[in-house]
Amino acid sequence: MTTPRIGLLGTGPWARRVHAPALAAHPGVEFTGIWGRRAAAAALAQVHRTRPYESPDELFEACDAVAIALPPSVQAALALRAAGAGCHLLLDKPVATAVPEARALVAAADRAGIASVVFFTARFGAQEGEWIAAQAAAGGWFTAHADWLGSVFADDSSSPYSDSPWRREKGGLWDVGPHALSVLLPVLGDAETVAATRGPADAVLLTMRHSSGAASSATLGLTAPAAASGVGITLRGTAGITSLPRRQDGPEVAYRHAVDALLAAVETGLPNACDLHFGLRVTEILAAAEETLPPLVPDRPWPRGVPDRP
């Protein structure tokens, strides 16, 4: 069998740190090339001994699959074109920030009969993935709480993502909210009701009632002080109390597992649990939560403490 050819769309910090190195090192794929800003694509291609492409469509024609490391609004449009070209899809979360875009992408992928995987780091981390599967099998959970707090936009931040316009516009709800949902939904079931309220800066408190009957909450944000940032998820139920294990490996290892998952979906024809249909559901839940948020106060600077409610 020929080695599947995969290309990369995007040359930003996440593509440079995770996507390109993982694709170049993966023994099961041929890293065909990169499309992005011309100079950046040429430089990244040189590092990983592949080639830059002048246009996305040229890359699609040369590939069996494409990985995308771009803002969600750009990702959705390009993934739609890639699906039309018959390319399997390895996407970043969220697949889109607008429900119609996500639904159109799912419909296009289904029509084309292509495989898809959405990269949720916790789901593809070895320890986290095993823990999620074990808790889903155990059942009996009464409630859960997640804290997913970054310091991307904190005053003392040195994050490479602090210049990300889409993260600044959409905040933690859309950037880290998908990660929290990727853990909570497979364990507690689909979210039947959802609501959200604002906290300081971009922080959002998300609450859900799940199909299992369990209730969950999640505190999400990108502006936490560095000393207060971090990730934690705790479940409480008939089996007692358990918490998501701390990640031991970097995201590059999880991304390699996501590539493996895409290859398996292509070979077997069986959908992955984190395919575009799951990605669509995450977008639908986050959009529903966003609709319940009170409006931001115009021209008010991001607060340093708990703000007055609008």
Helix count equals: 11
Major sheet: arrangement of strands = 3-2-1-4-5-6
**Which structural class do you get from the secondary structure elements?**
alpha/beta
Q: Over all CA atoms, what is the radius of gyration?
A: 19 Å
Strand content: 15-25%
| Number of E strands | 12
SSE topology:
Layout: E1 5-9, H1 13-25, E2 30-35, H2 38-47, E3 51-52, H3 56-61, E4 65-68, H4 72-84, E5 88-92, H5 99-112, E6 116-119, H6 121-124, H7 126-138, E7 141-149, H8 165-175, H9 177-188, E8 191-198, E9 204-210, E10 215-221, E11 230-237, E12 240-243, H10 251-268, H11 276-292
Parallel strand pairs: 1-2, 1-4, 2-3, 4-5, 5-6, 7-10
Antiparallel strand pairs: 7-11, 8-9, 9-10, 11-12
Helix pairs in contact: 1-10, 4-5, 5-11, 7-9
Write up what this structure looks like.
The chain is an alpha/beta fold and 310 residues long. 42% of the residues lie in helices and 22% in strands. The protein is built from eleven helices and twelve strands. Strands 3-2-1-4-5-6 form a six-stranded parallel β-sheet, with helices on both faces. Helix 4 links the parallel strand 4 (65-68) and strand 5. Helix 1 (13-25) packs across helix 10 (251-268), helix 4 packs parallel to helix 5 (99-112) and helix 7 runs parallel beside helix 9. The longest helix is centred in the last third of the chain and has 18 residues, at 251-268. The model is unreliable at 299-310 (pLDDT under 50).
